[in-house]
Design a protein that fits this description.
The complex is a heterodimer. The two termini of chain A are about 20 Å apart. In chain A, the strands form four sheets. In chain A, strands 1, 2, 5, 6, 7, 8 and 16 form a seven-stranded mixed sheet that branches. Chain A has a four-stranded antiparallel sheet with strand order 11-12-9-15. In chain A, strand 1, helix 1 and strand 2 form a beta-alpha-beta unit. Chain A is of the alpha/beta class. Helices cover about 25% and strands about 15% of the residues of chain A. By secondary structure, chain B is mainly α. In chain B, strands 1-2 form a two-stranded antiparallel sheet. Chain B is globular and about 55 Å long. The chains are: A alpha/beta, B mainly alpha.
Chain lengths: ~550, ~160
């Protein structure tokens, strides 16, 4: 017996699914949401975190143990047999993504940073003859950025000289947060080189309570969980969604979309933890499970009419996987810089992501990592064998006088970077995702000729006594590209509203729809696309009437 | 007849003795562990955490019991009042055991592995040397937006 029909069925309760759900409920439509994993409380997660050993704290998923039926990567403890993501290619390690299959999704552990794309970021092909253009311009996306900022509660600088970009129709909902001592010194060092370290736009309550959540008090634990919900995470919207009449089914692992004779999506099928299958019908469907899980569902849903998987007439589903490949500069400094004051991320040098060089190599941003280094300092100090007062002094020195600068590079949409279904199965018998990843020469050339030298110049300006720049790219957890947007159904999966070209009642909003990622965290752009899709859904439902 | 941890036969029925001796022995072993900890770590140490660490380290049994005894004997021989007075003169596995005890007080775990049980988070000593500036993650020290960019020199060290 199928579940009763809602106007809209949304698969995924992360930031994209929740923003769309609330918008549709406010517009008077009925919504059912399905979430693969469990519902948890904030206190439970904070307690999990406080009971993590020091070494376990380097994995942001360590305090989110996955349910057997909804696996997500926990690289610290995964083995070859238990690993969920099957990764291959020259930069397999750079796609070792961290995400959370719980109600609320990965904004549970995000840093909260909300950069916008710039006009240049959206026109790589036109301006630089590389990558893909977006099928619309910044001016089209701008109002949706504003709506996303107000929906999540984003704080940022009022001074246009510090905004990124300074092309805004409305002020930020809240003013910027203060810098800690390390960020302030980094800003001054950057200025000596002529770079601007700008305060980041952040989905964090700044000085005031916003949406009934408290203001940030500098708990310095944004990654992996804000103990007080000053940081926006989608879990905070779940009670509102329910209060507005939304139905949320948790521990419901969608494994197949069912299509009818007209190739419209008719129902989703999901497993429960007892491995029983259920069918949920609806009028219109949104799959917002992130850029790994959504294409996985589409590929698993292949049928006679859609032999390459749903929405895949273009053969682009699962292709063009992108992220911001990261390198890290580790510095030892002559004077204390101090991390651990304020949120874990609060600023970046981002002007380095723009310029005519993008015809040859990638841009990047440089970010002072403000996670408290007391723990890593203590681990390093204990390894020296020091004891007593000498140990305490060494802990303080290591903690205060070492720091990291993260270098996050853009990478281009390349169809060879591809998700397919592995032969390896998970607990439910569903295929694990297999991802081939190569960051590409465009990004490698940037590291060799552009970001490496800048990192060393920054280190010198900071008075570093030593600097090591890593050479192996790692992940930034900003999965993009796998359901790429475009006007031509022959080479794109979704249209300008994230509607699947092949199925008129299927929407695939999120990072997967982005044709370019540039250098900044992708979440605000995903949220903007969520609102663009939501508007289109409301319009489509108005024309079609009630559930079809 | 009573033996530590043994059984007595009463009219053909075996009854486990009260482990009185082993309780006293355990208590003494834990006291020695705390005594050694206080010598190894020049800070105020929480007694309950110490007992829990002692149990986790199996301080009532060899080898840890023997290492503790050896280090205490060394400290007594050198009339030590602080770790610098005796630790540099220790050798071998007793010295390694002493460093593991020190580590546990700082890191809050007996061994820093992903599945380790955590005995101290907010109270873990690793956070104390920087407590004048750095937040202990999840524990705010400021009010809304009340932190600032004021730096601090390496000296003086906070007292703890």
């Amino acid at each position: 017996m199928p579940q009763s029909s809602s106007d809209v069925v949304i698969v995924g309760t992360g930031v994209v699914g929740c923003l769309i759900a609330e918008h549709l409920l406010d517009a008077g439509h009925s919504v059912t949401m399905l979430e693969a994993g469990p519902r948890v409380t904030r206190g439970q997660i904070v307690e999990n975190f406080r009971n993590l050993s020091p070494v376990a704290r380097i994995d942001p998923d360590a305090c989110y143990p996955p349910a057997p039926w909804a696996p997500h990567p926990v690289w610290l403890t995964d083995t070859k047999e238990t690993a969920y993501l099957q990764l291959e290619g020259p930069n397999a390690k750079a796609y070792q993504q961290d995400y959370v299959r719980y109600a609320g999704g990965s904004t549970w552990h995000w840093a909260g940073i909300c950069w916008r794309l710039t006009p240049e970021d959206m026109q790589l092909r036109t301006r630089f003859d590389v990558g893909r253009d977006w099928p619309f311009d910044y001016a089209t996306l701008e109002p949706y950025y504003t709506r996303a900022e107000y929906a999540m509660g984003v704080c940022g600088p009022a001074d246009p000289a510090l905004q990124w970009p300074a092309m805004r129709s409305k002020p930020y909902p809240m003013g910027r947060l203060p810098f800690g001592p390390g960020e302030q010194k980094f800003t001054e060092a950057a200025a000596r080189l002529g770079y601007l370290n700008v305060p980041a736009a952040q989905a964090r309550n700044s000085g005031v309570s916003y949406h009934d959540r408290p203001a940030c008090c500098g708990n310095n634990n944004c990654i992996p969980v804000c103990p007080i919900a000053a940081k926006y995470d989608a879990a905070t919207s779940l009670p509102r969604i329910e209060a507005k009449g939304g139905k949320i089914l948790v521990n419901a692992v969608v494994y197949r979309l069912e299509t009818d004779a007209k190739n419209r999506v008719e129902a989703v099928h999901h497993f429960d933890p007892q491995k029983q299958t259920h069918r949920v019908v609806g009028g219109l469907f949104v799959i917002a499970c992130n850029a790994i899980e959504t294409p996985k569902i589409l590929l698993m849903s292949k049928n006679d009419r859609n032999p390459r998987g749903l929405a895949n007439g273009s053969d682009q589903v699962g292709r063009n996987m992108m992220d911001q490949p990261k390198l890290v500069a580790e510095l030892t400094l002559a004077e204390p810089y101090w991390t651990g004051v304020g949120p874990v991320q609060g600023s970046s040098i981002i002007e380095t992501s723009q310029g005519s060089f993008r015809s040859k190599h990638a841009g990047a941003l440089f970010r002072f990592n403000n996670m408290a280094r007391s723990r890593v300092g203590a681990i390093a100090a204990l390894k020296t064998g020091m004891v007593g007062r000498a140990l305490d002094a060494e802990i303080r020195r290591q903690a205060a006088c070492t720091m990291e600068v993260a270098i996050e590079h853009e990478t281009l949409a390349n169809p060879i970077n591809r998700l397919t279904l592995s032969d390896k199965k998970d607990w439910l018998g569903l295929p694990k995702p297999n991802i081939y990843y190569d960051v590409g020469d465009y990004t490698r050339l940037s590291a060799e000729t552009y970001t490496g030298p800048i990192a060393r110049q920054l280190a010198h300006a900071m008075g570093a006594t030593s600097v090591t720049v890593s050479t192996e790219f790692t992940e930034s957890d900003h999965m993009m590209g796998s359901m790429v947007m475009g006007r031509d159904p022959a080479n794109s999966v979704v249209d300008v509203d994230c509607r699947a070209h092949d199925h008129p009642n299927l929407f695939l909003p999120g990072g997967g729809a982005m044709p370019s990622g540039a250098s900044g965290n992708s979440t605000l752009t995903m949220a903007a696309l969520a609102f663009k899709a939501a508007d289109a859904i409301v319009g489509q439902l108005a024309h079609a009437g009630a559930a079809v | 007849m009573l033996a530590a941890g043994g059984t007595i036969a009463v009219g053909g029925l075996a009854v486990h003795s009260f482990p009185v001796w082993s309780t006293v022995a355990k208590a003494n072993a834990y006291k020695d562990f705390l005594r050694l900890s206080a010598l190894l770590v020049p800070h105020v140490l929480d007694e309950l955490t110490g007992k829990r660490l002692a149990i986790a380290f199996k301080a009532d049994q060899p080898p840890m019991k023997l290492h503790v005894a050896a280090m205490l004997a060394l400290a007594a021989a050198r009339r030590a009042t602080k770790v610098e007075d005796f630790y540099p003169f220790a050798t071998g596995s007793s010295k390694a055991a002493a460093l593991r005890i020190i580590s546990a007080w700082y890191l809050g775990v007996v061994e820093d592995v992903p599945t380790a049980q955590v005995f101290a988070d907010q109270a873990a000593l690793m956070y104390k040397p920087t407590s004048d500036v750095m937040t202990i993650p999840t524990y705010a020290v400021a009010g809304p937006s009340e932190w600032n960019a004021v730096s601090a020199p390496l000296n003086p060290m906070p007292k703890f």
